[in-house]
């Protein structure tokens, strides 16, 4: 292995740049050339590559987003299209790729690996919904943003004695809502994995106020309601039932942005460097997962054939602590 490529694909997440930096610097330390592939698999198809040197990754560890950018490339699912990408990679003498991203990115890396280009994947998505790793790059920063927002909302909620609904990301996974709600001390958490009953929620809120609670914060995952805004739906329904003022905040893309936390920079640096070591030792077709504090390799087939389940004990804990 003389030259490796690095790409970021799918939704961006804070810490991707720290991973790119680690890949370039570890690569150079091992005597490898490193090429950046712009715009994810789109750049593979277009041959949009650039050399990355030590100084190209200076001053990016603290930046959110990705210097390599990320574009959707649905055509990469077609084998004939990928053949073009493989030709481009070979013409540029790229011997292996580190792909940084979520589930779709992993599927692309799996296909390339099967078709003869060695790849290693690093899980990066704010949803933390990838099987085979405790944490993905970007989740911690996202949760810090959610918690900071909930804290700010609670200050005004206490002053005004209102119920606040805070909608967070998570179409299919309630991870952000659960962990953001647990760490933010929300009174109610609604997630796609658990059926909800808004009459029950309204009763809890009403009883909470009667017990002397000053504020009520309901954290909802966007995926609990498929026909529109989850927060507005829940807000309207609760207002009708309890008759109090209900205010709605949708955090939206704020959750993706911002400077990566120390934790995300740390795991991105470790995973990035380890991915290069793996490729240089001839390992391929694996994702690097975090198990506790250790990095372990997991075969793509295992990652892709399993679904990461939410830890329901944490959901029960959040309910107990919210009283
Ligand atoms: P994420 O990696 O965050 O889950 P996407 O699902 O958008 O993001 O996937 C990112 C990119 O990965 C897609 O734009 C496409 O280029 C590639 N991709 C996704 N699924 C496949 C697949 N089944 N086969 C090959 N490439 C895929």
Verbal overview:
There is one protein chain. This protein is α/β, with parallel strands linked by helices. It has 2 domains: 3-138 and 260-304, Rossmann fold; 140-256, Rossmann fold (3-Layer(aba) Sandwich), CATH 3.40.50.460. It contains 11 helices and 11 strands. The strands form 2 sheets. A 7-stranded mixed beta sheet has the order 3-2-1-4-5-10-11, sandwiched between helices. Strands 7-8-6-9 form a 4-stranded parallel beta sheet, sandwiched between helices. Strand 4, helix 4 (103-114) and strand 5 form a beta-alpha-beta unit. Helix 7 packs across helix 8. The longest helix is centred in the middle third of the chain and has 22 residues, at 139-160. The mean pLDDT is 96. Residues 9-11, 40-41, 72-74, 76-77, 101-105, 107-108, 111, 125 line the site of adenosine-5'-diphosphate (ADP).
**Count of individual domains:** 2
- Evaluate the radius of gyration: 22 Å
Q: State the end-to-end CA separation.
A: 57 Å
What name does the CATH topology of the largest domain carry? Answer: Rossmann fold
Order of helices and strands: EHEHEHEHEHEHEHEHEHEEHH
Q: Look at the helices and sheets and give the structural class.
A: alpha/beta
The helical percent reads: 40-55%
Number of strands: 11
Number of helices: 11
- Low-confidence parts, pLDDT < 50 over ≥5 residues? none
Beta-strand percentage range: 15-25%
- Major sheet attributes: 7 strands, mixed
């Amino acid at each position: 292995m003389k030259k490796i490529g690095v790409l970021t694909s799918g939704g961006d997440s804070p810490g991707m740049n720290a991973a790119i930096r680690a890949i370039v610097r570890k690569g150079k330390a091992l005597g490898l050339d490193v090429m950046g592939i712009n715009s994810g698999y789109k750049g593979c198809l277009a041959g949009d590559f650039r050399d990355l040197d030590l100084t190209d990754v200076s001053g990016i560890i603290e930046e959110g987003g990705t210097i390599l950018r990320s574009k959707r490339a649905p055509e990469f699912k077609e084998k004939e299209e990928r053949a073009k990408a493989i030709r481009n990679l070979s013409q540029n003498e790229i011997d292996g790729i580190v792909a940084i991203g979520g589930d779709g990115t992993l599927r692309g890396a799996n296909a390339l690996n099967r078709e003869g280009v060695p790849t290693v994947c690093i899980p990066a998505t704010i949803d933390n919904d990838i099987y085979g790793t405790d944490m993905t790059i970007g989740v911690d920063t996202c949760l810090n943003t959610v918690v900071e927002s909930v804290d700010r909302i609670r200050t005004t909620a206490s002053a005004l004695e209102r119920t606040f609904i805070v909608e967070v990301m998570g179409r299919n996974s309630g991870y952000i809502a659960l962990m953001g709600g647990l760490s933010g001390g929300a009174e109610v958490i609604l997630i796609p994995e658990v059926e909800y009953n808004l009459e029950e929620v309204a009763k809890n809120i009403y009883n909470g106020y009667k017990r002397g609670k000053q504020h009520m914060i309901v954290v909802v995952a966007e995926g609990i309601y498929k026909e529109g805004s989850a927060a507005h739906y829940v807000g309207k329904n609760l207002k009708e039932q309890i008759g109090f003022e209900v205010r709605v905040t949708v955090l939206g893309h704020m959750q993706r942005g911002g400077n990566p936390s120390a934790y995300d920079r740390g795991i991105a640096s470790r995973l990035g460097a380890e991915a290069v070591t793996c490729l240089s030792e001839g390992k391929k077709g694996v994702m690097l997962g975090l198990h506790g504090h250790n990095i372990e390799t997991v075969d793509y087939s295992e990652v892709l054939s399993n679904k990461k389940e939410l830890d329901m004990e944490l959901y029960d804990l959040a309910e107990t602590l919210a009283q």
